[in-house]
Amino acid sequence: MRTTTTTGEGRLLVSGEDGPGIVAAVSAILTGHGANIVSLDQHSTGPSGGRFFQRAVFHLDRLADQRSALEVDLHRELGERFGLQWSLVDTAVPKRVALFASKLDHCLLDLLWRHRRGDLPMEITHVVSNHTDLAWVGDRFEVPFTHIPVARGAKGEAEAAQLDLLKGTVDLVVLARYMQILSGDFLAALGVPVINIHHSFLPAFVGAAPYRKAKERGVKLIGATAHFVTEDLDEGPIIEQDVVRVSHTDSTDDLVRRGADVERLVLARAVQAFCEDRIMRDGNTTVVF
Amino acid sequence: MRTTTTTGEGRLLVSGEDGPGIVAAVSAILTGHGANIVSLDQHSTGPSGGRFFQRAVFHLDRLADQRSALEVDLHRELGERFGLQWSLVDTAVPKRVALFASKLDHCLLDLLWRHRRGDLPMEITHVVSNHTDLAWVGDRFEVPFTHIPVARGAKGEAEAAQLDLLKGTVDLVVLARYMQILSGDFLAALGVPVINIHHSFLPAFVGAAPYRKAKERGVKLIGATAHFVTEDLDEGPIIEQDVVRVSHTDSTDDLVRRGADVERLVLARAVQAFCEDRIMRDGNTTVVF
Amino acid sequence: MRTTTTTGEGRLLVSGEDGPGIVAAVSAILTGHGANIVSLDQHSTGPSGGRFFQRAVFHLDRLADQRSALEVDLHRELGERFGLQWSLVDTAVPKRVALFASKLDHCLLDLLWRHRRGDLPMEITHVVSNHTDLAWVGDRFEVPFTHIPVARGAKGEAEAAQLDLLKGTVDLVVLARYMQILSGDFLAALGVPVINIHHSFLPAFVGAAPYRKAKERGVKLIGATAHFVTEDLDEGPIIEQDVVRVSHTDSTDDLVRRGADVERLVLARAVQAFCEDRIMRDGNTTVVF
Amino acid sequence: MRTTTTTGEGRLLVSGEDGPGIVAAVSAILTGHGANIVSLDQHSTGPSGGRFFQRAVFHLDRLADQRSALEVDLHRELGERFGLQWSLVDTAVPKRVALFASKLDHCLLDLLWRHRRGDLPMEITHVVSNHTDLAWVGDRFEVPFTHIPVARGAKGEAEAAQLDLLKGTVDLVVLARYMQILSGDFLAALGVPVINIHHSFLPAFVGAAPYRKAKERGVKLIGATAHFVTEDLDEGPIIEQDVVRVSHTDSTDDLVRRGADVERLVLARAVQAFCEDRIMRDGNTTVVF
């Protein structure tokens, strides 16, 4: 499942309009530079006229040194010849991630714990919260905690402060049950993906209080959904989902409690997939290798 | 899980406004008539002012003979004293069930197969279809198959024919992927519960083509929902749900195929629960013991 | 699912040889003392000659005051007349629990976190470890941490120290990935149940290194098992189990990592069930209401 | 998930000792012959010195015509240069499969039903049973049913008759709850893979009566395992497994009933994976793409 990070391991991500010869071209370039492909996943949305997605993991000694030469070939072959998007990632460079939380601790703690035990190949550059309840994690997990309050009617100022902090320093923002809606302007200015965990099985129960709605509707399973944040609330591309069985004996509080276990697990899976470059966007859906 | 049907086994279902002493009253009546309670499930929606639901299974020799005397006591104690609804069921009497299908066979075949192997304590009184594709099951499973076509614009006539056939002869109608919407008038005139299988995890993807919508939304799990049919399409009380994991590699056709496995399983569970008197309605939700 | 602990709530647990009239007797006693039964679960292993298990939850004002009188009746009716075992529990009194851990933190942290957020109705009286790696949880979670090293060949001394600490002060010991085998003498002297989490789907892969064995055998699911500890290693009554899907891409290390999520969840469910008096032993199996 | 079978689609399966350049060589050969790779899965068991597994799906017009030329290149490059095993499959040619059953119908019926609706890309060449109970499926599903009784002490004669029937005419034998153990001699003489469904979560509960053993052990989940048959009973490479939750309320008969749902699903998945050339053996385990 996971790829052990070793010196000289890279990932090549390619996407675009499908066509004959892409796989051969990619593997020829990599092999031509002395790389050994250790894993290759590919997906086409249709036999003709579809979209093409590929993730290759390869070993290459002195990857950093050879990177420029490799990029020249990739640009010429994949970019110019096939008109594809591509990106080359050095596995040794962890993703820089900011975690946003409010008062609920389960998703944040779980990510911090998984990171500390070495499961998540990322660097936690910031923990940001609009409250101070979770400030203690700064010391405990040795991560920089920043309190940016969001006063009623002054979200713009808060977002400006968040941008000051994060702009250009992160590859991903994770909303670990952060209870504020981010504006479209903020998302555009931030310029990196934002992953949110929604506490329902989307598209069921969009918006607020999904567990109360689930109780009222009498569903027999509740779920959680990790998705990329877009301007349209709860409408972004879904990355991962899971559910847990409930029954008439569960109160809304019980659903909250049971749901927390699913939320933290689903969010952790999504963050791990992102940090391992397994997620590729396809319109409003995702390919997760 | 299942209760073996033996001579002299009964079920007592009680519901209504909760209050002290109900359990004692029920068990005193049953014990007073010589019954041995072998299983008892109870649910209260709240510690005070809640709704009360109980299902008791008991052994009682010569249940048929003693039934009248037992009902007198139940009426006096539960009905008059506590103001509760109750019903007494002789386990030896199977539910009379009509199965409706159109062209898709998986749900119908699965119910017929489970019935033949003795899993579902019911009598299949009719198989009704608006097509003749599945007429062969009549001979194969020894059930009466009736073809009632539904001509465009003539649903009223079809429903009249269905009512002629079923009225007063069934305890339950099961829509095993029957592709017609039943009118409120039909439901009212029929007067018995109708269970439908919807091919999505409700309330996600109500209405037509849920698998196509699921593909477009990019969900990572698809599901099925068995529910009681009400006038509001796809809004009735949910009985049972389950899901299965899918991925970007699954086409809409694949979702249809994978979903079929969940549909037949979820519907079978719901029908079994009904036939064993495990389902009690609580407003627009269900208690399933 | 969970019962909110309020003043005046009790639980009555009854088990023994099944026979007619038990439910009526129990409910008559409780109702006679003014209790309102809010939940009642019952299980019989067979229609005749079987074993009987019952868990009743009831509301009773001034439970503490009335307890003695209630116990007199329970002793006479249930103990003497029916020959049953019973125990009366005041829901307001949390279970006293000692948590044992070694170096692995996931199960311990998860229990501590669930306890802090109010999910587990227990008092953590001790955290005991044969290492000091996890000593920091003492301050963080405000629980007494005791380091009792287990020197090679000197397990007897360690167990003596453990007994000094725990004897008579706990209702349950939880082995949260405690990497030492407890002797039969210790278990006997301790005199309270011990719950262990085994990192496999028992009875598959008993003994050491189950994830390595799972990898070698090529299973497609791995699991965890919470069970009561008996003298026979990995053979005690199973309380709860769950699994997670794995594939050929998962290394043994990946199985360890994925398994950790299942372990902590399964152990938490088992501990919660114990603290809510939902578990009753039936020979080498359990009834979990 | 599934690949639609169209004219001109092929699959290339490659396995052997891993080494640099294999992916590039494979894709160069395919592209050199005008093939378009539409899907490629690859697995290596280790970064160096590991075993290599690859499954490529490609489109190639007039595949049948070009097959010989393609095979020449594959033999030279993959076989001689890299020392790899490979096989080239025309997707248009369905696998020839014999289904063995005894009296239990659920696995056999499920495979026949899935085949009829077009889910399983195979040709059912024979249904073989040691009993006549299921002879009716011959007419119903238009498959040749052959009754080969297995008299006590005369298994050799039965196996000889089976070999007469099957030798050289099948690519796979599926034991759909066939209640006879096949001899090592039979397996060797047959010369094609045999897939069995075992009614437990292997390696738990090997041998006979797994559901009874599961009940006695008090497990909380039961499962089913599809595996390749080897001379060592229940020890062959596992292809697919799944489980379902059970509880103390389930009798052994209930486990049998619930388990049947898992058995038929797990076996169908394994057969589908085989027919789509997704399964590659790796010692006593499998890679399932």
Automatic annotation (TrEMBL), chains A, B, C, D:
Q: Return the CDD domains for the record.
A: ACT_F4HF-DF, FMT_core_Formyl-FH4-Hydrolase_C
- Which terms in the Gene Ontology molecular function aspect does this entry carry? formyltetrahydrofolate deformylase activity
Which principal EC class is assigned to this enzyme?
hydrolase
Active site feature: 234
The EC number of this protein is: 3.5.1.10
Q: Which domain of life is it from?
A: Bacteria
Q: Which UniProt keywords apply?
A: Hydrolase, One-carbon metabolism, Purine biosynthesis
InterPro entries for the chain: ACT-like_dom_sf, ACT_dom, Formyl-FH4-Hydrolase_C, Formyl_transf_N, Formyl_transf_N_sf, PurU, PurU_ACT
Q: Where is the ACT domain?
A: 11-89
Question: PANTHER family under this entry?
Answer: FORMYLTETRAHYDROFOLATE DEFORMYLASE, FORMYLTETRAHYDROFOLATE DEFORMYLASE 2, MITOCHONDRIAL
Q: Which family does it belong to?
A: Belongs to the PurU family.
| Function (record text) | Catalyzes the hydrolysis of 10-formyltetrahydrofolate (formyl-FH4) to formate and tetrahydrofolate (FH4).
Name the record gives this protein:
Formyltetrahydrofolate deformylase
Source species? Amycolatopsis sacchari
